[in-house]
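New to this. Please check this protein:
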Amino acid sequence: MAAANPLHRQLESTKLNETITRYRPSKAFSNFAQGAEVTSLDFDDTGEFCIATGDDETLQLYDCKLGKHSKTLYSKKYGCHLARFTHLQSNVIYASTKENDTIRYLSLHDNSYIRYFKGHKRSVTSLEVSPVDDQFISCSNDDTVRVWDLRSHNCAGLLNITAPSLAAFDPSGIIFAVAAQSASAILLYDLRNYDKQPFTTFTLTDDSFLSQYSYPPRMPAWSKLEFSNDGKHMLVGTRGHAHYVVDSFAGDTAQFVYRAKRPNGPTSPKKLETSGDVCFTPDARYLVSGQGERGVIVWDSWMQADEKKTLKPFIELAENTKSMASVVSFNPKMNLFATAHKDVTFWLPEQHAPDAPSPSAAPTSAR
């Protein structure tokens, strides 16, 4: 898997390290219907726009440069979830939540459909666009993973995997991962030979840690699968008391556990699972996660984990903000991240916020 230039990564990481502790809620947008909850967030490649879907069957577009709401788009007939920008900031794909399980390709400019992607027989649980071209992957409760190309309505490839709840591309766009929670496994495929068996399978178990929360130990529901931008690690976000960071090359032999105070999924059984409340920062160093109504928590992956492979929080941001963060996404280009629950909130560094933790809490090693 291709890795980012080490010097570029170091410079970007140093820049973010100077500001990560200073993020505060900057602006909140209340564009969804009363009582509705946000189910997904995504930024376009340039970082200029953010798209959010809600269970009120609307898509909300935000201008990150101007810090304002741009437009509301309705999908009342089909519902909407997991909206993802293509490589054109004017176009998105999203999953339907009612009537059928078709994936829809939408022009935000005139709110018209460009193409439909039909094939899934049950609800789509994951939708990810390749970082380098027009291919994308979808997972569904029909026990299939499908590979598509935006230029054709025909499915380009099909994998039969039991409960393939999540999928993610690595930064090169050559490798993709599928998370099958029923097997506690992450399967890695080469996109050029995806019809073959996975070239690597990582089994994700840690009974010693999980037994602290349940007996017998049970893996919490997985909610997020993501590669870091340097391709070295994969993040498995969960609905329980931990998130997992897995070495993309060594698998569970280099597994780290991150603990958080957090809610356990949607507030109602009828609510959709969100696109995840944890993510990597663009420099691949930090993890940012919601923790219920206690604001946002940050971990520094360069710090040393303890003997139980647990990493202590680096900092808690705006602990008493009282704003639930059930969805979290970091802007790929701008110094901004977004959280959402019933509102969408943009977080920006505050100039006069407290300084970073003392050097004693600084990273002890860099992997």
